[in-house]
Amino acid sequence: MLEKKMKQGSGFSGEEVIAEFERLTKDAAIVQRETLRRILAENAGVEYLRDLGLAGRTDPDSFRSCVPLATHADLEPYIERIADGDSSPILTAKPATSISLSSGTTQGKRKYLLFNEELVKSTMQIYRTSYAFRNREFPVGNGKALQFIYSSRQTKTKGGLTATTATTNVYRSEEFKATMRDIQSQCCSPDEVIFGSGGADFSQSLYCHLLCGLLAAGEVQIVSATFAHSVVLAFQTFERVWEELCADIRSGEVSPARVTTPAVRNAVEALLGGPMPELADEIARKCVALSNWYGVIPALWPNARYVYGIMTGSMEHYVKKLRHYAGELPLVAAEYGASEGWIGANVEPATPPELATFTVLPDIGYFEFIPLRPLDGGGAAGGGCYAEAEPVGLTEVAVGEQYEVVMTTFAGLYRYRLGDVVEVSGFHNATPKLKFVCRRNLMLSINIDKNSEQDLQLAVDAAARAALAAEKLEVVDYTSHADTSSSTSPGHYVVFLELNAEDAAAVDGDVLQSCCDELDRAFVDAGYVGSRKTKAIGALELRVLQRGTFQKVLRHYLSLGAPVSQFKSPRCVSRSNSGVLQILAACTVKVLFSSAYD
Ligand code: AMP
């Protein structure tokens, strides 16, 4: 009903969207049953469900008893046939309109997933919902948005389907464009900047986003990107290029060294419209007055109301830096979803990102949760090792417990294990509020030790606080590797840190040694501590990287076709990822070994 009204162009009513959300979340159990019924009725005849003997039944009990839990590897052969051109109803009754590629930066391998109009609809629903709550808290009217967004390359599968990121698939849809006009502030940059220089050469788009943002300074109300990392990267770049940006504004010409694609240059110069020396002087004055770039966003964009993007999970590391650039401006964590489908919206936008939760939309898919009990051994997420129990339904989860998300979607996923660990932090009406904990399969492990992505993050944070903060040193980015390459010596953890020091090789050796020892001590899972004491795991190795290393890692992923807008720094690099390991090795300026257990 609401969707139809908005399609007819009758505008956006935040209060109506919120009322609908309240109704759905109050009736979550009934809405879930109905959602499953709709998915299964629509797809009753598909090969996958037919072969499992579901025989057209649509109730949760039959579904759970006939259909097993599945991973991406289980579904891959089916998705591959579809990508190769088999148009029979394999996973969905309606044919897939394109293929989505997951980022693969967390798991090392890009996955193919089906994309169809249902995913466009659910994207609009989740954007509308989170916008309605955000706009109630921080109303923005008709201003502009400084968005650090970049289009992704599109390829064709063997069967002729377009393959690209889920967000690009969504943006291409006409229905999406029509609806989003109501609920999205206009981007400062012309389309040429977003679409014109995608792929590995995104730096000219980034430069132009900054330039266009400065030209529209008074109108900008939102600063955003899909992931917090892109906003931080943008302002780290701004620190280096602000004088060039000012020179371009002063002369009315875009630097030919920075922006080489003629269509992009022309579009931005048209926006510039000629020399603007007063504006250039004003920007320069503001930049010079800043102390270490603290509060650069509100200083240059005085009408910005908030900074928006995914700031949870592997993005949490960037929140500190983001807060520095944002000064007093609120940081608002964006919604929780995956290329597989959406899960929850942030309906409490004023909550700091570290505490952000995601309220599951009960009609967006059918959700189950595998209860996970962290096994003994400490570690924030139980060292990534869990005892599992039978999956429970959306409304049966318990506050304070951790679960792996299982989803059944309108896009051909049935009881699909997403691989994400979440914790239930409370309920909004009858539907749970989830806190993202970590991805399950990412862990450092040599023998009986298990450390998850979150354990690593906590260790890096603890070492930075204990050893680096007093020296005004910050961790720009980090990753790790379980080194088991030597057959004679025990395996050990390697932690790679890029620091904010211009010359990392010149950083005091004692400070780095203490950081290395603190890191080793900060892995508190019993398997690790025990193995370190018995020397079954060798001394932790700290590798200090030269400035800009993670930009090289980013470029490496982009050269392999990964989209910049989806990039998440890999937090654990396996031996098979030799490209990244080579970059890390070539950029290492100092190597230290922990003496914490000597
Ligand atoms: P992709 O496979 O590239 O679509 O990335 C999806 C994955 O990104 C999810 O399964 C999560 O692990 C992570 N992710 C997405 N949204 C969030 C969020 N709001 N907070 C934390 N992690 C997220």
From TrEMBL:
The GH3 middle domain extends over 358-439
The Gene Ontology CC terms held by the record are: cytoplasm
Record domain GH3 C-terminal: where: 454-576
Q: Which GO terms describe its molecular function?
A: jasmonoyl-L-amino acid ligase activity
Does Ligase appear among the keywords?
yes
What keywords does the record list, in alphabetical order? Ligase
Family, similarity comment = Belongs to the IAA-amido conjugating enzyme family.
PANTHER family for this protein: GH3 DOMAIN-CONTAINING PROTEIN, JASMONOYL--L-AMINO ACID SYNTHETASE GH3.3
Q: What is this protein called?
A: Uncharacterized protein
Which organism is the protein's source?
Leersia perrieri
